[in-house]
Every structure is written in structure tokens, then in C-alpha cells.
Amino acid sequence: MAKTLLLTLLLAGACHRDRDAKGPMERAGKGVDTAAEKTGTALEGAAEKTGDALNRAGRATGRAFERAGNKLQGKGQTSSPPTTPSPKD
Q1: Average pLDDT over residues 46-62
Q2: Both ends of the chain: CA-CA distance in Å?
Q3: Which residue among 20, 55, 78, 83 has the highest number of C-beta atoms inside a 10 angstrom radius?
Q4: β strands within the chain, DSSP E
């Protein structure tokens, strides 16, 4: 009888589960949450870098259009402007 009682207590102790232990679905959910958080952080960083690149490209394009406009208007040329011929008498 003592052996049976001892065996029962040992088995009960071995099978005891931690009540606070998370099940497989909870662990999987936590993994999904962690992955989603990391993805969100990475996307925010990528969006910031893309925005910075677009701003730089916009400024460069604006400068290029300004230079082109100045050339079309004859501004900023290093050579002297064309002279008009004097009227003949």
C-alpha cells in the first residue's frame, strides 16, 4: 500500500503542469505579435528613408529645372551676350 501511495504521489508530481505555462497557441500568437512588431518597425524605417530620398530627388529636380529655365532665358551665361549690328548709314 505504501508503494502504491508513493508511486501515485510521484506520478502526480511528474504530471503537474505549471498553471501559468503558455500553451502552443499562446506561444504561436506571441511569435506572430513579435514578428508583426519587427515588420512594422522595419517598414517605418524604410518609409522614412524613402521619404528622405524623394525629398532629395525633388530638390535636385527643382535645381535642374531652374538651371534649364535660366539657360533658356539667357541668364547665367559666362560668355558675353550677342551684340546687335549697328544700323548702316
Answers
A1: 96
A2: 142
A3: 55
A4: none
User: Domain residue spans in the chain?
Assistant: 26-73
With the C-alpha atoms ordered 11, 13, 16, 21, is the resulting torsion angle positive or negative? Answer: negative
Alpha carbons 89 and 64: distance in angstroms, whole number: 46
Mean pLDDT of the chain: 82
List of residues 6+ apart from 10 with CB closer than 8 A = none
Q: Which residue has the higher pLDDT, 9 or 77?
A: 9
CB-CB contact of 81 with 74 (8 Å) = yes
C-alpha angle with apex 51: 50 to 55, nearest 5 degrees? 115
pLDDT value of position 8: 75
